[in-house]
């Protein structure tokens, strides 16, 4: 019997423990944000204005290259927000990776408040919120609460003058790393009750993942339930095929959206209605299904928004660090759809098993074609990565991939079977690159030079905040 054969997705090749689903949210790798900020704090070459008092810094050049040049490739401008945006950008916050413009994170400190309001992660001082490492902390130095000259920028009545990064916090004080503090990057601290602190914004990697024809997985299943809720007939099979594409285009036309077949931010927002207890529809099925696969909620997918569904929504909202009201509105939907999903029991996994729904769907499809496919690592539930880089174990002559890894120099390495593994991974689609060091497979054009002990697969999306993951 050939190596590549059909097996059911539910077949248990080897089951590794999922780990606790109740792990606290790290939301854009807070520890990574702090480490990046500390690196800048200690970088004597660029952690200051040059000359002091000039507003000329490295950070303005990175986030607002349109500002006036001031030598050394640096740019000039008030730069506290540039510093925080730069650090969040390096940590791969999706919005921080976008260009400087109104309505987005930009060179104004108030934009971090507005980000928090958009994402549902804004926490005013005095709300009982305990600031987390990596949060943005925003200040009103005069503690006057409102500045009429700022107008709409002070939405909510806040006059925001400055922003920094939370390094740590306890029950009495918050430690920060701030740019544009006495003309340099400095470490500072404040009492939690300081009237100058307006509040905190927690970074998040929540964004609407674009899905289109050829995609598969839990997010596609949600789209199909939502299309059914809109009155369209479509199979609910997790495969974004021709019928789903037709239904999406029909929905987009009816809503006055560009009928391109891509389910991006605007189409997602139009598809996903606000839901609450008492609702009964296929949209509720989409919600229940997502809560099950991404948070292990154990709900019956029956379309009835009852008490158990509300409790699961509240639990997810608490996990995500957003308002916990039991109503699945736009912010909750966006956080849920973008949340990573664990690989199921049909694939043996030695390391992290969390990835995007699309990557999990592609890996599951590959596992249905290759007996013994083993994943060495995909990612953690909240690790700051995109969840789209999988490391697959090399195929072994004894078919013991799940028992332990080998490298290409091992007598147990099976080159022919690994070639078939790579072909199966590519056949599922949405693969940007495959990396492995076998010179024969490199010469065949199957892989790019990479690790000796794994096949590293990078998945991609038609549209992604990080160009490295664009198809």
UniProtKB/TrEMBL annotation:
GO terms for molecular function: hydrolase activity. SUPFAM superfamilies: Cysteine proteinases, PGBD-like. Residues 216-271, 281-336 form the Peptidoglycan binding-like domain. It comes from the Bacteria. Residues 76-180 form the Peptidase C51 domain. Pfam families: CHAP (PF05257), PG_binding_1 (PF01471). The keyword Signal applies. Keywords: Hydrolase, Signal. InterPro entries: CHAP_dom, Papain-like_cys_pep_sf, Peptidoglycan-bd-like, PGBD-like_sf, PGBDSf. Residues 1-22 form the signal peptide. This is Peptidoglycan-binding (PGRP) domain of peptidoglycan hydrolases-containing protein.
């Amino acid at each position: 019997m050939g190596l590549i054969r059909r097996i059911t997705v539910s077949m248990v090749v080897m089951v590794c423990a999922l780990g606790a689903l109740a792990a606290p949210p790290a939301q854009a790798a807070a520890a990574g944000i702090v480490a990046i900020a500390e690196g800048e704090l200690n970088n004597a070459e660029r952690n200051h204005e040059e000359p002091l008092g000039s507003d000329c810094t490295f950070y303005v050049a990175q986030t607002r290259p349109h500002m006036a040049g001031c030598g050394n490739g640096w740019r000039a401008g008030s730069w506290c927000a540039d510093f925080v945006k730069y650090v969040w950008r390096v940590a791969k916050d999706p919005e921080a990776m976008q260009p400087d413009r109104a309505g987005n994170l930009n060179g104004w400190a108030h934009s971090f408040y507005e980000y928090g309001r958009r994402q549902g992660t804004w926490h005013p001082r005095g709300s009982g919120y305990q600031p987390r490492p990596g949060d943005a902390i925003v200040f009103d130095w005069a503690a006057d609460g409102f500045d009429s000259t700022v107008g709409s920028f002070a939405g909510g009545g806040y006059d925001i003058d400055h922003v920094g990064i939370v390094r740590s916090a306890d029950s009495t004080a918050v430690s920060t790393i701030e740019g544009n503090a006495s003309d340099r990057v400095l470490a500072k601290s404040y009492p939690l009750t300081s009237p100058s602190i307006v509040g905190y914004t927690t970074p998040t990697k929540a964004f609407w993942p674009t899905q289109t024809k050829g995609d598969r997985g839990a997010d596609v299943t949600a789209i199909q339930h939502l299309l059914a809720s809109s009155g369209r007939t479509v199979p609910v099979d997790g495969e974004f095929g021709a019928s789903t594409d037709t239904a999406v285009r029909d929905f987009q036309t009816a809503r006055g959206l560009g009928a391109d077949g891509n389910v991006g931010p605007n189409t997602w927002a139009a598809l996903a209605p606000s839901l609450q207890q008492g609702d009964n529809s296929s949209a509720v099925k989409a919600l229940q299904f997502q809560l099950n696969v991404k948070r292990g909620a154990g709900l019956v997918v029956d379309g009835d928004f009852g008490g158990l569904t509300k409790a699961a929504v509240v639990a997810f909202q608490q996990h995500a660090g957003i308002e916990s009201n039991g109503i699945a509105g736009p912010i909750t939907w966006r956080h849920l759809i973008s949340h990573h999903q664990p690989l199921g029991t049909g694939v043996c996994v030695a390391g992290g098993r969390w990835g995007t729904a699309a990557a999990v769907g592609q890996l599951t499809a590959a596992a249905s074609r290759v007996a013994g496919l083993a994943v060495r690592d995909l990612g953690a539930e909240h690790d700051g990565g995109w969840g789209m880089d999988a490391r697959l174990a090399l195929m072994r002559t004894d078919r013991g991939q799940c028992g332990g890894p080998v490298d290409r120099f091992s007598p147990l390495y099976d080159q022919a079977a690994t070639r078939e593994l790579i072909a199966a991974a590519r056949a599922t689609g949405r693969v940007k690159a495959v990396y492995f060091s076998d010179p024969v497979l490199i010469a065949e054009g199957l892989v790019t030079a990479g690790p000796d002990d794994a096949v590293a697969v990078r998945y991609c999306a038609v549209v992604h905040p990080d160009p490295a993951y664009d198809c």
